[in-house]
Amino acid sequence: MENTQNPQAVIDADTFSVHRTIHINAPREKVWRTVTDPELISQWFGQITLTGTGAGALGTIGWPGERRVPIRVDTFNPPSEVSYRWCNEEGPLPETVDERRSTVFRFTLEAASGGTRLTVVETGFEHTGNPAGLMADHRGGWDEELDKLVALLEHSS
Predict the structure, then answer these.
(1) Residue 104, SS3 per DSSP
(2) CB count, 10 Å around CB of 96?
(3) For position 2, what pLDDT does the model report?
(4) Which of 37, 65, 74, 110 could covalently link to 117 via disulfide, CB atoms 3.0 to 4.6 Å apart?
């Protein structure tokens, strides 16, 4: 699924990060729920389970046919910012998030004319075994997953 209305994600090799800013024709509170409620996240992103709410909540996330990886909510500032830390290394996964083998993706939401401006920035790739490969993979992933988010929010009743 391609959304030509929004720019694609960009890799910043100097800061080992991937970022994308999109516009969603939906109120910020609705977008906030859709990026923080596990049931709603699972409708556009990976299947996520969390124990607890807010910063410190722990769980796993995965896609069909792939392994589930540990994830943790790092920041939770309704309705403007939430970040998740998740493991991104090949090989055996720890039971919980390993600070040394993980990246962080942060959603920032701003009210904008006719909806919400959502920015995702994923950092920490320099701590992985294959920074360039993972950044390229995640750049494509953010394009695909955020296009699904836009479609869900703009075409739902």
Answers:
(1) strand
(2) 13
(3) 47
(4) 110
C-alpha distance from residue 65 to each of 47, 62, 68, 96 (Å): 11, 8, 9, 21
Token pair for 71: 């994830």
In the chain, count H helices and then E strands. 3, 8
pLDDT tier, 12 (very low <50, low <70, confident <90, very high otherwise):
very high
Confidence (pTM): 0.93
Q: Is 57 helix (H, G, I), strand (E, B) or coil?
A: coil
Task: Please give the structure tokens belonging to residue 45.
Answer: 């992103």
Q: How many CB atoms lie within 10 A of CB 108?
A: 15
Identify whether the C-beta of residue 47 lies closer than 8 Å to the C-beta of residue 62. Answer: yes
For 57-68, write each residue's pLDDT tens digit. 999 999 988 889
Is residue 126 within 8 Å of residue 16, measured between CB atoms? yes
CA 65 – CA 127 distance, rounded (Å): 26
Distance of CA 107 to CAs 39, 65, 91, 93, 119, Å? Answer: 17, 26, 28, 25, 6
Nearest one of 82, 6, 98 to 41, comparing CA atoms: 82
